[in-house]
Task: inverse folding
């Protein structure tokens, strides 16, 4: 009797596990189906782009201190906020304005120097009416992203970017999924195309992203290096007794050796001192103790790359050379670590 009860319990457990596995397979199938549907929609979107995209870029290429004002409500509003943030961080001044708030005073945030990017899947969003009318009254460029070319928004805009006819990816075909993915991707395309037009560089990017790991990765050697009076430099004929004083005072654990024209010809480190340790060391000239042709870097090199070189060569400092190969700075391993570069 007891064994039959145990057998029944084991069968129930197996059935439960089998059902859980089946449910897991169903869940993954739903997710994979949605992702594939959205991926196919993006391919169709890419294939649908025409000269209208270029005209939209012309309208959104702001000059004279203006901004791109991005508008949308509901799910389109969430996408609009992200597009505005991406543009602002990649060299195109942009702000999100809530359409309903615009009708209650925030229209004053939009100037005649601006351009408007309005998002509405249907193109019939009533909350956008006041923004659209305002843009027409003051001749403010209006670009629309919508799925319907015959909609009021598309017909009123200066340039409409029409999303291809693709059903929503949710099982009921109702929840904004595919449409918002295409809007978001199209907004990214506009932002990056404007970035390219504006010749936005990695240095510009770091200026707008000073915090976080991204900003640290883009730091240049010139941002961290020590300059001028901090440089531990000595002439090649200087006796090592005086070189040791320079190394001690400057606290980098090394000294750069320069010729009469100021060009770097070598470096003296603690290791060089140990290798030449003998009674006559203090009287020897620096050029007889130095390591010739030391590893160096440039001020415009990434600090992360300089750190990689120091780690690879097992050294703690790099002299920074100018165009004429004269030292203009020195970067220490600790400078990189203090800046959070690892």
Result:
């Amino acid at each position: 009797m007891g064994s039959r009860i145990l057998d029944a319990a084991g069968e129930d457990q197996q059935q439960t596990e089998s059902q859980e596995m089946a449910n897991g397979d169903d869940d993954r199938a739903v997710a994979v189906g949605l992702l594939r549907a959205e991926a196919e929609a993006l391919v169709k979107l890419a294939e649908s782009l025409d000269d209208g995209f270029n005209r939209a870029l012309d309208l959104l290429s702001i000059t004279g201190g203006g901004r791109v004002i991005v508008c949308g409500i509901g799910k389109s509003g969430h996408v609009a906020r992200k597009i505005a943030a991406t543009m602002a961080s990649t060299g195109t001044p942009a702000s999100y304005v809530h359409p309903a708030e615009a009708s209650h005073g925030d229209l004053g945030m939009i100037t005649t120097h601006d351009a408007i990017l309005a998002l509405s899947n249907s193109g019939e969003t009533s909350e956008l009416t006041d923004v659209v009318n305002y843009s027409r009254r003051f001749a403010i460029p209006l670009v629309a992203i919508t799925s319907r070319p015959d909609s009021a928004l598309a017909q009123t805009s200066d340039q409409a970017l029409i999303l291809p006819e693709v059903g929503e990816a949710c099982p009921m075909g109702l929840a904004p999924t595919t449409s918002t993915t295409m809007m978001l991707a199209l907004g990214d395309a506009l932002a990056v195309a404007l970035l390219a037009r504006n010749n936005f560089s990695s240095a510009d990017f770091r200026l707008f992203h000073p915090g976080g790991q991204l900003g640290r990765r883009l730091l240049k050697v010139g941002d961290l290096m020590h300059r001028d009076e901090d440089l531990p430099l000595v002439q090649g004929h200087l006796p090592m007794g005086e070189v040791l004083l320079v190394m001690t005072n400057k606290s980098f654990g090394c000294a750069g050796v320069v010729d009469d024209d100021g060009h770097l010809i070598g470096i003296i480190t603690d290791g060089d001192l140990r290798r030449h340790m003998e009674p006559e060391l203090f009287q020897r000239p620096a050029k007889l103790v130095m390591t010739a042709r030391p590893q160096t870097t440039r001020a415009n090199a990434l600090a992360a790359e300089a750190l990689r070189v120091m780690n690879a060569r097992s050294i703690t400092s790099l002299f920074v050379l100018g165009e004429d190969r004269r030292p203009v700075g020195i970067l220490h391993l600790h400078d990189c670590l203090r800046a959070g570069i690892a």
